[in-house]
Design a protein that fits this description.
375 residues, alpha+beta, 23% strand
């Protein structure tokens, strides 16, 4: 039995110090937990949360189909508003524009000729109508004059017949009066025919106004064809302009989907752009604190890349639905909590903030509380 004592003592010694070591680890963990909680504690009136910088993403896609001839930017590049990103083949579209411009020129000339023809025809018709109306008026006047003369000569003829029957006038005077009466009758017939012919000419001249209306319709048709040709030119020119794909805003290209030589269709994604002027920090607020958050509240964003700078922000969105904490949160205990997503829209005029940066957000719940950066 004496031979077993030394090993038992060694075992007891090891167990004793193992317990001491375990106790020290537990105490250190508790101390670290309390220290971390103290370091992250902000004064009442400030609410802190962590998240990542995100932004409004824009998918850049062409409006037309074609072959990519040049790609000038790459994934991760920063671009400015109006920077050229991609060029698409333009030979076919340039030919379409030329054809459309030729059609526009053709119909413009047709419209001009139709307008000249219309104006000339209208002048001729109106002149003919005016002339015919004048002849009708003159013929009407001569008809009235002939009728008046005929009435006078008829009365003279009747009177001289009566006088001749009573042998008051000689036969020669009766013959003269009779001859004058017959001439008046002939003149009246001639004046009537002349008036009828003048009125017929006037009717023909008036009918020629239909020719003017036809010429006017030709002008309108040429004008419509010209308008269609102009629209085709505008469409072809727009398609040709669309072969140049420009950056719609300042930002960072998150993805690049095409290479030179590829065939693309309208709507094919080329790049995904994050607008640097519309960045926000997306944080998650615990359910008990979400009632303290309101749209428009002042906030500050802090990132490790700029430890001495605070970026002004405001609460721009509060999710109406609760969700579990995202998977990139480190501990399982945090991931199973119900939280609400909150976006803090940042002022980023100098472009210091970048999508994907981790950051801390502080929301001021009371206006009198001074700002403080989370430890």
């Amino acid at each position: 039995m004496a031979s077993d004592q030394p090993p038992n003592r060694l075992t007891a010694f090891v167990k004793r110090y193992a317990l001491y070591a375990l106790a020290l680890v537990i105490l250190a963990a508790l101390a670290w937990s309390f220290l971390a909680r103290w370091l992250h504690t902000l004064p009442d009136g400030l609410l802190a949360a962590s998240g990542r910088i995100e932004g409004d993403e824009t998918v850049i896609a062409p409006k037309i189909a074609g072959q990519i001839t040049q790609v000038l930017k790459d994934k991760g590049d920063q671009v400015q508003l109006g920077d050229l990103l991609v060029r698409i083949s333009s030979e076919q579209l340039a030919a379409q524009l030329q054809r459309a411009q030729d059609q526009q020129q053709y119909w413009d000339e047709r419209r001009r000729q139709a307008r000249v023809d219309l104006d000339y025809t209208r002048q001729q018709v109106e002149a003919a109508i005016t002339e015919s109306q004048a002849r009708v008026a003159a013929a009407a006047a001569r008809t009235q004059e002939a009728a008046a003369r005929l009435d006078k000569d008829h009365l003279d003829y009747q009177r001289y017949q009566s006088l001749f029957a009573r042998r008051v006038v000689p036969k020669r005077q009766l013959d003269e009066v009779t001859m004058a009466y017959r001439v008046s009758q002939a003149q009246q017939v001639a004046a009537g025919k002349e008036r009828a012919m003048a009125e017929a000419d006037l009717q023909q001249a008036l009918l020629r106004r239909q020719t003017v209306e036809m010429k006017d319709r030709e002008v309108q048709a040429a004008q419509a064809s010209l308008a269609a040709a102009v629209a085709q030119v505008q469409e072809a020119a727009a398609n040709l302009r669309d072969t140049f794909i420009y950056a719609p805003s300042r930002g960072v290209l998150l993805t690049k989907e095409v290479e030179p030589g590829e065939i693309v269709n309208p709507g094919t994604p080329l790049f995904t752009l994050v607008d640097q002027d519309k960045l926000y920090l997306k944080v998650y607020i615990n359910e008990p604190d979400i009632g303290k958050i309101a749209l428009g509240q002042e906030a500050r964003i802090y990132v490790d890349a700029f430890p001495d700078r605070a970026f002004p922000a405001r609460v721009s969105r509060v999710s109406p639905r609760a969700e579990f904490t995202p998977k990139y949160v480190e501990t399982r205990e945090e991931r199973v909590k119900l939280v609400f997503a909150v976006e803090l829209r940042a002022d980023n005029p100098d472009g210091y903030l970048k999508p994907g940066m981790p950051g801390d957000g502080v929301i001021r719940l009371k206006d009198t509380v001074p700002w403080q950066r989370p430890h």
